[in-house]
Amino acid sequence: MAIPQSFIQELLSRVDVVDIVGKYVQLKKGGANFMGLCPFHGEKSPSFSVSPTKQFFHCFGCGKNGNAIGFLMEHAGMTFIEAVKDLAQQTGMVVPEEQQSPEDRARAAAAKAKQDSLSDVLEKAGEAYREQLKITPHAIDYLKGRGLSGQIAKRFGLGYAPEGWRSLASIFPKYDDPLLAESGLVIVNEEDDKRYDRFRDRIMFPIRNIKGECIGFGGRVIGSGTPKYLNSPETPVFHKGRELYGLYEAREALHSAGYVLVTEGYMDVVALAQLGFANAVATLGTACTPDHVQKLFRFTDSVVFSFDGDAAGRRAARKALDGALPYATDVRSIKFLFLPAEHDPDSYVREFGQDAFAEQIKQAMPLSRFLIEAASADCDLQTAEGRARLSSQARPLWQLLPDGALKQQLLSELAQLIQLETAGLEKLWGQQAASDQRFAPAARSATPSPQQANAAFSQASASRDEYHHYEPQYGEPPAWPGGYAQNPAPAGNYGGQSGYGNAGAGGNNWPRKNPNWTPGFKGNSRFKRDQPPVYTGPRTPPASRADHAARLLLSNMALWETLAGEDHAMLCAQPAPHGPLFAWLESQFHEQGALGWSALQAEMQGQAFADDARRWMAQDNLGVTPGSEEAPPPDPQEARQELRRLLNMLMIDRLKQLETEALTQASTGQDPEAQQRWRSLHERRKELMAAAAAITTVQ
């Protein structure tokens, strides 16, 4: 969107930079200018000056300067467009949008009106929750038990949602107002249209955007109820993958501390603010996304991810690494803090004190070290196979880094661990990246017309033994025409084990003159060419290995805990609909733990893969039918072994492709290392095949 420069000048002439800055900084008149403590760095003596005549701010300490637009971009983390729109709204001006059609402008205006209405509803509910907290002793006792003061509760706007099913009806006389459902405050039962409050008997944490507007809530149950944490659903004003809890409250502390501390939950943020670390923020029940990281770097050049030391914390850190890598430039600092398994940030500070926690932050693991640690998972670097595995796992992480000195230094370190020359490793990864492009799954093609399908079928039937290369999916019987053996006898074995007989059983591989000869045909000719069947439309595809893996994970979600990082990456990289489903499952597991199929089915409503998931579950009669109870999950040990075998087979398929490519390159002499690469891939595939066979034997 291009905004005319004339409009920018007119806008700046109508706003007063003193008023804009004064909303965030306490200013005092000092001669011709106004002075205050700089919001961009910690200081005790005011060196921050705002000039009403020049409409300009300048800090003599850190050098930050600019106009009203620049201040909002630097201090509030807004983009240029957002800052212009914010100032325009304050002055009653309309940002010109010549590039939009009247219809687009009308839709944008309607969307803006809807967002304003939703924000008003959420603000009103937040005020009601705060008033309710004041008169609810057991909620107050809970917060006091967590060490929170009334002052910190007021700063974060904490409240309490009563136990009743329709408590909000006393706040909103029109309880059937669609805005209550759209804002996520009220749940509507689609079957009988009954309505009830989403949040009941919970400590309420209002979630604010960078402007301070309430866009959603997080609710923490009091006691042992489930789920422990409950967030507002996605709405037109609330997107969990882009918002960070506590960022609005932490803005000034970020500048004074010089870094942002990213934690796992909103209780961590509030407790740390109580204990002297007001620069903490948290993701909202989701893994850290690139959008989160990009937003953080609007406020600071240093990010420290703090996670619990347990398995869930390690998984969260691994996802944060993926999100942070694209923004790890040479001038930014990204670290990972892992506390002992028995501690979270709150408990660690209370037991060991602020100084000890600050020292832990200072000694946090740099991104470069964590990348190498993540890539080295399950790699025996004393063997060629282990080093090859490290190369395979490190490449996608390294390629996410932006070009710069850090990327080159990491390449050198990884090359030493893999025992290759730096140039050789870079060349190898370049070739593998090109190979990935060639083997990347193509987008689903449109269903062919009957005429096209019949023509293709006739062409495929015209030449001898040119059967489509079909590999039966896991759990399927062979589907070759006429029952041919999957592995024909080698040249010279004319009759197999059965001589000339038993052709239909697959024992005879004698080449026929006419592959369409029909046994027992008594017509005038010895041979008969069958007519190709008429195409009647697409048939239901057989269950694939990815289908079965999805079914196992949907019916026993706790299996996520048993998977390695390589398994997670492989599953999430599957083409749609499987990959998006696995990625969604991982985020749900991180947010709510292991859920049953009924709960998952309810949570995934509206997702693109929901229908596919129900179909996969129904294939083995594990789905829930109306009026029936939820089927029990399969035995965990059997399910774990079955899933391990499926993952091994998926990896074996991939290794086969890479082996074929390596052999081709070796035969042409284009790559002198191709033969060695083929040996490593072949050995890895043999190991996986042996593991799959061992699991089958145990079963």
Structure description:
It comes from Limnohabitans planktonicus II-D5. This is DNA primase. Keywords: DNA replication, DNA-binding, DNA-directed RNA polymerase, Magnesium, Metal-binding, Nucleotidyltransferase, Primosome, Transcription, Transferase, Zinc, Zinc-finger. Residues 439-475, 523-544 are annotated as: Disordered. The protein folds into 4 domains: 5-91, Zinc finger, CHC2-typedomain (DNA Primase, Chain A, Alpha-Beta Complex), CATH 3.90.580; 106-231, DNA primase, catalytic core, N-terminal domain (DNA primase DNAg catalytic core, N-terminal domain); 250-434, Dna Topoisomerase Vi A Subunit, Chain: A, domain 2 (3-Layer(aba) Sandwich); 545-618 and 634-697. It is built from 26 helices and 16 strands. The strands form 4 sheets. A 5-stranded antiparallel β-sheet has the order 1-2-3-4-5. It has a 5-stranded mixed β-sheet with strand order 13-12-14-15-16. Helix 3 (68-75) packs across helix 4, helix 17 (405-418) crosses helix 18 and helix 20 (545-555) packs antiparallel against helix 25 (636-668). The longest helix is centred in the first third of the chain and has 33 residues, at 102-134.
